Amino acid sequence: MKNYRLLMLTTLIISGCSIVYELIISAVSSYLVGDTTLQYSITIGIYMCAMGFGSFISKYMKKDLFNWFVMVEIGVGIVGGLSSLTLFLANLYLETYQLIMYIEIVIIGTFVGVEIPLLTRIIEGDRKDLRVTLSSIFSFDYLGGLLGSIAFPLLLLPTLGYFATAFLAGTFNLICATLIVWRYKDRIENAAFFKLLTGLLLVIMMIGMVFSENISNYIEGGLYRDNIILSEQTKYQKIVMTKHKDDLRLYIDGNVQFSSADEYRYHEALIHIPMMQAKNRDEVLVLGGGDGLAARELLKYPETHVTLIDLDEEMTRLCSEDPQISALNCGALKSDRVNIINMDAYTYLTDCDKKYDVIIVDLPDPNNTTLNKLYSNVFYRLCGNALKDDGVINVQSTSPYYATKAFWCINKTIESEGFNVKPYHLEVPAFGDWGFNMASKRELRDDYEIEVDTKYLTKDNIHSLFMFGKDEVDETVAVNELTHPMLIEYYNDAVRNWN
Length: 499
Prior knowledge:
The structure is a single chain. This protein has helices spanning 2-33, 36-57, 65-81, 83-93, 97-127, 130-183, 191-210, 212-223, 263-277, 293-298, 313-321, 323-328, 345-351, 369-372, 377-385, 404-415, 487-498, and strands at 227-233, 238-244, 247-252, 255-259, 283-288, 305-309, 338-341, 356-362, 387-396, 420-428, 432-440. It is an alpha/beta fold. The N and C termini lie far apart (57 Å).
């Protein structure tokens, strides 16, 4: 009975680790390459196929099942434990990232595919009851998969990050191998060798866990051009802050959010142009903008009160408390006129019964399916429901030059919900050519009068922002519907093209 319980526990652990490896590879590839849907789909597809191949070849393992099982656990522990490190190093130093990723998926998937058939035959050999063996082993297998899939996003990734999570999963696989070696040493050839080997590999994995922060700092030092002064994995995203001389930059999941050298250009264009169009400015809703820089510009209007909706509490906390960012946003997030609510923007609008004079949509680019929803026709319909009849909405809309179809898709999607839309753009050195779509239920005026202090905007240059070159316009785009997400395809095509 004790032997049976040990083997069931082993099944539970290896199944959980298997799911964690699959999620790590998908998440790291999404982080480094982009196109989340594609990365998860490819990983799952190849992984399942490799598992099938592993199950197939397990039938040729006819003798010494315990030896085979220990070797498989050692193999998956090593490759899986080093999976994050391997992918990041491949991205830094090799031109064949995708090939390395595919090889890693195939190796781990094949090992995982061998595990359960071997365990089934081992348990059946002891109990002689195939019905009970199969029902038990698959029950623990599925339960382990559930535990791994829940633990990864809610506990492991936010707490440990990519490297320590992979090392931890590798450690658990090696622990399983060690337990089997010690418990069934009489049925394992060269048991003493395997005891020494698993013990040594366990030490290596634990050292990797202990020094995972150092490894992360080294790897990130190669991913970012400037010195990293802060790196934090939250429940939702990876936040990195770098600094070179006076240039402070904030990155989310590898994408630059602002450079202190030129962010005023972006935020003045984002805020003041719609504020000049608004008949009233008392209540302004900001969706995103957790760095507080949009709020800084809004607080230049003495009558304005700001409701800021940002999903990540750690983001708004950091930008409220970090002395360098709070100096840049002039302490806007601590102002009595700013009300911060940490929740999903879509959910907030769904339940919103308040009307706003101005709505600023300052969300990250639509590079995954979750963000794509926040650029859909239904989302803009919800924005319209929360907007006063004479109110103005402004949407950051990526680059009309680098992602032309994506920019005009956003424009067309807003227009499809009955808004009058005025697109405009400007040069932001950290981003390149960057665009916005301003909209209202009423006709928008062509006159602009600056009433606050600015560093970039002037009465003369505002009108030039509404002019587009021929290579910055594409009208052959579809509306981004919630049930037919076209925008993410346009955006990912642009990323692949410029990469």
